[in-house]
Write a structure and sequence with these properties.
Blueprint lengths: L1 H25 L1 H8 L3 H22 L9 H27 L2 H8 L2 H13 L5 H24 L4 H24 L5 H23 L8 H26 L4 H8 L2 H13 L5 H22 L5 H4 L7
């Protein structure tokens, strides 16, 4: 009986952590917009500031039972580069289109992960995948079509959001490879440092400003790192150690509507009927794809491709 009670408490704690993590990542696009700096700049500081927490933590934490393999380290480095590209594109998209559009389009990562798994791991998508893809693509058309009609130049922002989703899918595929032989904290530290360096190089290459910001901008950047990266991602990581990834992935799809809802009072953005319908179709399509994982637990690490970066 005590064992069952402790298991129940741990299970409830995991879902509570997942809820906190969901709220944390839901603030990502909002804080990027509030920072008022370029997308690449906010992405860099999000990762760099977060490493002031993760790296010392990795140093003082007990060493993992087994040493990571060379292949796992290489995969973690590749994942860090892919995540840097994802954040650079996604954060820039937020500054070029509405946060609702950027987030709703950005959560299409599960579709691209499924395609990548098909091409590189011979995991052929089922009818459920194609059904979900059709729903999601229809929703994307509804969202992008509205944006292009209202503000044609912002179509570039929509494309960047989709590009970010593709980069995030690549990140998840490398994450899957790395986590075979590496613990989560070590992976977070290695990929995080690599992503920070890559984003710094991107900022220097495009001439993105790295200083001279207002107090309000710095406050938003620090909040972005602490709320989204440290609290949000760590809570999600904790929950995924105790909740099946397939189940958590469906729950985490709530990031998109949370962001859209927060954008109304915080950023005074308006949500159109077409965006609402498109958003429902996108989330429904991704849910259909992810429900396949519930029938195939061994594929959890691939099908758990939700926008936790955003």
């Amino acid at each position: 009986m005590p064992h069952r009670s402790n298991h129940s408490i741990t299970h409830r704690a995991a879902y509570l952590a997942l809820a906190v993590g969901l709220l944390g990542v839901g603030w990502s696009a909002i804080l990027v917009r509030l920072s008022g700096v370029s997308g690449s700049t906010s992405a860099f500081y999000r990762m760099a500031i977060a490493q002031l927490v993760f790296v010392p933590w990795r140093i003082v934490a007990p060493s993992p039972a087994t040493r990571p393999s060379r292949g796992a380290v290489i995969a973690a480095v590749a994942a860090g580069i892919a995540f840097a590209v994802d954040l650079a594109l996604f954060n820039t998209a937020i500054m070029r289109t509405s946060v609702g559009n950027a987030t709703l389009l950005g959560v299409n990562a599960p579709i691209f992960v499924a395609l990548g798994a098909w091409m590189f791991f011979a995991q052929r998508p089922t009818v459920a995948f194609w059904s979900g893809f059709a729903l999601s693509f229809t929703g994307m058309v509804a969202i992008v079509g509205t944006d292009v009609i209202r503000h044609p130049v912002l179509g570039v922002g929509d494309a960047m959001a989709v590009g970010g989703a593709i980069a995030y899918a690549v990140y998840l595929l490398y994450l899957q490879r790395s986590r075979r032989d590496m613990d989560a904290l070590t992976f977070s530290a290695i990929s995080g440092v690599v992503a920070s360096v890559a984003l710094l190089l991107i900022c220097l290459a495009i001439g993105a400003p790295l200083h001279g910001f207002s107090t309000e901008s710095w406050a938003a950047l620090i909040a972005l790192a602490l709320v989204t990266q440290v609290v949000g991602h760590m809570c999600v990581a904790y929950s995924l150690g105790r909740i099946p990834a397939s189940v958590a992935s469906v729950v985490l799809l709530g990031q998109a509507p949370i962001t859209v809802i927060l954008a109304v009072p915080v950023l005074h953005e308006h949500v159109t009927a077409a965006q609402l319908v498109g958003g429902v179709l996108v989330l429904t399509g991704i849910a259909v794809v992810n429900l396949r994982a519930m029938r195939r637990p061994r594929a959890d690490s691939v099908t758990a491709a939700v926008r936790v970066a955003g």
